[in-house]
Amino acid sequence: MKITRITTWQRKMPLIEPYWLSGGRLKFEQLDSTFVRIDTDDGVSGWGEACPWGHTYLPAHGPGVRAGIETLAPALMGRDPRALGAINNLMDLTLPGHPYVKSAIDMACWDITGKVAGMPLWMMFGGEQATPVAVNSSISTGTPDEMIALIRRASESGYRVHSAKIGGTDTKADIERIEAISAALPPGESVTFDVNRAWTPAVAISVLNSVTARDWVEQPCQTLEQCAHVAARVQNPVMLDECLHDFTDHLNAWRMAAGEGAKVKPNRVGGLTRAKQIIDFGVSVGWQMHIEDLGGSAMADTAAIHLAAATPDAHRLASWLCHYHLADDPVPGQGARNNGGFATPPSTPGLGVQGDEDILGTPAAIHEA
Ligand code: MG
């Protein structure tokens, strides 16, 4: 089986409402997603999606995905998409770094491999059944009352786990947010306070040692070293996110005891193949993980839900579904959706989500052998 064509589409997907991170430091209104279809000489096609969360969140952006695929495509022509290890090594040789560029290609190759094997991706990843995965809300920064109102609204949609975005220059406001939100949580619900790198170590230590709440705190500071410094000096378990880009970062995080868990996002680490390697490592060292993508439609969300469903319960925390924030749904009716606080991966072979070319319209590029 050989890759004969790689087609890309650009899709600008507006958010239902503006989204604020880090105490209002970062604002997001629209995502620039790239959909990819890989065709083979056997007539089997696979789909993938790469959608960075804007261009200010991480060193990744939509135009970079498409430019990177243009660079990778000639090397991929004629290669067997089922040889996932070889495909990923080839991509790293052809374009070192730029992991966010590679995730849609890797996803489409997994889709093809699952279709050929007649197995859904959750089974390809070692899962025994299509386990429903708890989903978590994502609560934009605001006043404590605004944030509690958003949590109540999410609870009504079935969410029992919430990710509340905090972190600003006003440490008193953050202390108030943490205490008010933690105290307002209905029984059976939990929250992670996601700082998105906004604090210095001194602020993190001061805030977290001032609050009584012992909920998870995510990515309190910019770097892995800073997070490790904080983790050694606070009682809250620390979840790592933006400082983890490749396997070595995860290994170093564990060596430095920088946290008790990690967010595993295929687009950030280069695709499902690399994410699976990291999840296996996380399971080995006893981490708890949120497995979700950086952004995207129900296609990218579904790929991450396949991975999450194949991860042992004890190591899997809730997954966020980006597509609930979008005013656009290019794969209507397909994929893993929130159903009473849980999302179940499809059991059809492969990814179980197909791009709709009528909806996607004119391709951004067609690369052929
Ligand atoms: Mg985060």
Salient structural properties:
nine-stranded mixed β-sheet; Enolase-like, domain 1; binds magnesium ion; 13 helices; 21% strand
How many strands, what sense, and barrel or not for the largest sheet? 9 strands, mixed
Low-confidence runs of at least 5 consecutive residues:
none
Q: What is the number of E strands?
A: 13
Counting DSSP H or I runs of 4 or more residues, the number of helices is 13
Bound molecules: magnesium ion
Structurally, the number of domains stands at 2
User: What top-tier CATH class of the largest domain fits best?
Assistant: Alpha Beta
**What is the end-to-end distance?**
14 Å
Q: What is the succession of H and E elements?
A: EEEHHHHEHEHEHEHEHEHHEHEEHE
| Alpha-beta classification | alpha/beta
Briefly say what this structure is:
This protein is α/β, with parallel strands linked by helices and 369 residues long.
Verbal overview:
This protein folds into 2 domains: 3-118 and 357-368, 2-Layer Sandwich (Enolase-like, domain 1); 123-343, Enolase-like C-terminal domain (TIM Barrel, Alpha-Beta Barrel). It is 37% helix and 21% strand. It has helices spanning 62-76, 84-94, 99-117, 121-124, 144-156, 171-184, 201-208, 224-231, 247-255, 266-269, 272-285, 298-309, 357-360; strands at 3-21, 26-40, 45-50, 133-139, 161-165, 190-194, 216-218, 238-240, 261-264, 288-291, 319-320, 342-343, 365-368. Strands 4, 5, 6, 7, 8, 9, 10, 11 and 12 form a 9-stranded mixed beta sheet that branches. Helix 1 packs across helix 3, helix 2 (84-94) runs antiparallel to helix 3 and helix 5 (144-156) packs parallel to helix 6. The longest helix is centred in the first third of the chain and has 19 residues, at 99-117. The protein is globular and about 60 Å long. It starts with a strand and ends with a strand. The mean pLDDT is 96. Magnesium ion binds at residues 194, 196, 218-219, 241, 263. The site of magnesium ion has 6 residues, from loops.
